[in-house]
Write a structure and sequence with these properties.
Strand content: 35-45%
Number of strands: 8
Largest sheet: 8 strands, antiparallel
Number of domains: 1
Radius of gyration: 17 Å
CATH topology: Pnp Oxidase, Chain A
CATH architecture: Roll
CATH superfamily: Electron Transport, Fmn-binding Protein, Chain A
Order of helices and strands: EHEEEEHEEHHE
CATH class: Mainly Beta
Amino acid sequence: MRRKDREITDRSELEAILSEAQACRIAFATGGAPYIVALSFGFSWEEELRLYFHGAREGRKIELMRRGGLVGFQLESGVQLVTGAAACDWGMRYKSIVGSGRLEEVLDPEERRLGLDHVMTHYGFAGEPGYNPGSLGATTVLRLRVAEMTGKRRA
């Protein structure tokens, strides 16, 4: 990272960014042009950071994932515009995480439910999760195993 003074390495700060972020953007290299998509997500961080997503069983992201699954990701929190008298005084405050890893479909029924539970909890659901079997069968659950990441802030 070029600006070491902005780097975030503390796990609790990184977890706070993950908890506060509203969406995670996943970027695929397609050979012709990059493809990026913003997704709802949840996460689990035990031995490794895992991001969970849900979506339809088909579509471009599923096709691209099946071609190898290596992706980049980005999320942010605390975004705030900073204004000033001159144009060069303007900027943004933010905290962000950028990284890469392998995106894969979750096939194990127990982990599928756990992944969906992480997504629901991330957005504030506090009840006992239950999923309609028809909806669950039509939903793909994806897991991104984070291989590397960098946290950054601009206060």
